[in-house]
Amino acid sequence: MSEVEVRDLTVEYQTSVGWLPAVAGASLDLRAGQITGLVGESGSGKSTLALSLLNAVPAPGRIAGGTIEVAGVGDLTRLGGKQLRKARGGAIGYVFQASQNSLNPLKTIGRQLLDLGRSHEVGDLRALIARAKDLANRMGLDGDRVLDSYQHELSGGMRQRVGIVFALVLNAKVLILDEPTTALDMLSQASVLDIVRKVHDENQLSTLIITHDIGAISEIADRLAVMYGGRIVEDGPLLEVLRRPTHPYTKALIGATARITGDVDGARALPGRPPDLTTVARAGCVFRDRCPFAVEVCAQTEPELHSFDSERRRACHVEPSTVLTGTTGTPAAVGEPA
Amino acid sequence: MIQARGITRTYQTHGSFTGDRTVHALRGVDFTLPDGGAVSFIGESGCGKTTLGKILTGLETFDGGELVVDGVELSKLRPRQREKYFRRIQMIHQDPYSALNPTRTVEATLGDPLRMRAKETGAPVSAWRERAAELLTLVGLEPAAVLPKYPHQLSGGQRQRVVIARALTVDPTVLIADEAVSMIDVSMRLGILSLLRDLRARLGISLVFITHDVATARYVGDGGELHVIYRGEVVERGLTDEVILSPVHPYTQCLLSAVPVMRGLEEPGPDRTAPTAALDERTPTPGCLFQPRCPFAGAQCAETHPVLVPFGADAVGTDAAEANVTGADVTGADVTGADATEESGHVHACFYPESRRVVGVEVGAASA
Amino acid sequence: MAATATLAASVRSRRPALTAFRKAVTRKPGRIIGLAIIVFFILLAICGPWFYGRLAVDPNSLYAAPSAKHWLGTDFAGSDVLQEVVTGGRYVLATAALSALFTSLFGVTIGLVAGYQRGLTDSALMRLTDFVLTIPGLPLLIILSTVWNFGSPWKMGLVLGVTGWGGVARAVRSQALSLRERGFLEAARGLGLSRRHILLKEMLPNVAPYAAMQLMLSMIAFIGAEVGLFFLGLVPFSSTNWGVMLNQAVFSGGAMETPSALIYLLAPLVCILVLTLGIVLFLDAIDELFNPRLRERV
Fold it and tell me: Where are the transmembrane segments (chain C) (predicted)?
């Protein structure tokens, strides 16, 4: 059962050369009770995809096609005005990128919480405060103290937790975290990840975590979706994907992660640079010029995301076994050409 | 060659409501960086590691201890004379976005220091273009494509390479990399790290690597020493691999436990642990600085301040022992011998040292 | 053929600033209008007086209504109003430009040096700035007018400029202070680049859009100030300009009572209004002119 179903979502941005897709035909399910990790490099469209789950793609962007079905709300792309505002926060809790810096420095956390309650027309503000305190306490914060604090009185990790409190205080069943650990050091990252897992389990949420750090996400996610050039190129159960990556990009991404175990010399940085809106390939596979397995067909036809296992999907012309066992070989592009 | 002995830095903050407060950014840091060597400092944010980097590049002053660069004790020199030595030590900033002037092209960014350097060394100034191209090639960029660009037209990884190229324009002998990869996409980090390792091997440049991510410290090269720094104090030191595989100090163990485990490929270490509380610098800690957060703290920890001792030695150092050493230093006794034994091995500042296996274990390795 | 192509390419690449300027201005119609207004007034100030030469007075038609001969009518003395507006613009614009020049020269230099040096230099320069900020410009001008006549725009511009740079200096200093902490400035210091280089090549381009904006805004203020001085009659009339026109329309022509002097009153007012509008519309383009990042987003 899925809490959120994204189907064929296309999000475009207006540029000097016309409307270009930042997300192209993406389909993704957020399953009830599971943490889904969405991994990709900067410019892969992962944040755009996440924002479109709030139907909040900033100008000059627009959702150009596809549907986002949220359980109990309906197709989010068709909502507007008050209904949409209710869904944001009410059904979907969102913790923004750099949410450490997204609190108002002039108001206490408690006041900002009341503002949130009023704008969502919560009748019982006392209950709201009580719930916030409870959430904060369960995340290892001193609820009373935090609500009376200003933003600058809290550390980065604490602000991140406050962000989660805000996202969940209206009983949202879907939690989206955009780069929740990027600006944090290792100890804070570990405790934030720990808390996300705990809150997720306690509240029976469907959680989506967007990150560029495949290592951090592997700690807590149940499922993994990998995004590249605006496309989801592979997804499936996390352990399966990490153990047996079937898309060359996933494989390269895992190999490019600095790890604390394993052979230092065996790790390889990803060659080339991630594409952006204007440089992404218009025809064929978007990854082909960085792909060590690329064959002729990759330049002509774009591989479709298809199921190849009961639980897994991939978008690649090359056989899964070739990718899995093949040596990384000589990548098509060496170094980091501009 | 850089030698630092007992570097301290203290800030006085004057708050109108909170009262005056003394912040110990660094509480006596020692290290030796041989030519072509590498030293890593790890610790959480606010532990003083950035201050250390700034001191080493001359952007910050220190108020105690000695800093010896190529045999010259810097605090004895006048500021103007010091510049020459600090010039040999170049910093690679954490944030490649603010480290490049947004209004200048790569060509202008590299051109000015190159021309300045050429004038100093007596080389033909007109050769700067070739030198710029050479440096960009060295850092793995294509000169023709990159030179006319503005910083915003480059990716994070490319920017960091330009930053490294700029640092190399003045022929430094030491590079300080302060969180040099933390703001770069994970997929691009290894490229930068292997570039740094390459510079060590090919140009003999030594490296001070400052980070919160222990995993990246493994990639900067062989023979590197790892210093674990907590609230301005080094609590454990040893060869990088040794500290990672058998950490002794509980703080090191907590830091290493926090490194994410790549599930499916790795399994969590059997002794994984975490701090019992969040960092609170306002509570006075007369004993061990880590005691309020330590999962293994004992009775002695709250009262006595431990100092660095070799792992495996019976005696555990205290402030009194340290006082003796300092006393010996003053009287001119033979301390170099003591230094040598300390620096050669794995040292820690804990009363209850116990090696624990906290980092992830490779799945393949475990079954084998 | 090939030669022309390379030539064209080299011309194009040698003038990226010009291309950037064109792009930034043509991005929005408001900016084009703004620039057109500014250029129009500048041309008016430079070339306008050539058409008229000496002020011709037609004593036979006082307060004449607009006609083919006198497009905007005549004033109480029989001078052509259009002619006065055109010739009066030169003084107003020259003064505003000169004072803006002085302001930017002092303000940017002092702001940058203070922000970069900090410490004693900063304190000294900022006390100087505070002093300048507290100089009451109006009384100073009144006193000075007893000694100088403000017939030449140089003197007026100098006095306005020298008393007016305080705000720009403060604004530039605060920008410089935050710039100083940026990585690229730390790097420049670490590389041992000269102070001159850091101030002129690293910092100046970064504060330029800010300074330019302050400058344009202060030009509006300067135009208001000088016209106001003449209008109030605090400075002896020694030339034709819009302020003098306003003064005479109100106090001699009785524009408040009789409609016949209305055009005489409105003509300079509309000019000031339109010029201000031009500057405000053009302000919008300044950020893009200096910021390579914005410049590109076509």
Answer: 32-52, 91-116, 128-148, 215-237, 261-283
